[in-house]
Amino acid sequence: MSIATVLSQLGIPRHDPHSLEAQLHAMRRDVQRIGKALSRQASHHTEGWNDHLSDFGREAAHHTAHLAEIAGTQAMRGAIMVRHDPLPALAVIGTGLLLARLLSRR
Known about the structure:
This protein is mainly α. It has 3 helices and no strands.
């Protein structure tokens, strides 16, 4: 008595490794392995991108803070200059308003 006959008597069919069902099962396992490998690689690359993006964000925040400090300093200088001598500021504002009015008539 062979194993094949015992298995068939118990109702367990013996699978032929060359059958279409066996080939589909093998392909399904291969696709699952490929999917897991791609997932691991994508996760690895995502971690690398996170590091680069966080470095970029920190650097951008540093530069933005520096530029805000410079702009604040320049605004204070301008306010002090206008407080001491408002005539040039009034001349610039008046010229701008006159120019806007002349251009809006066309």
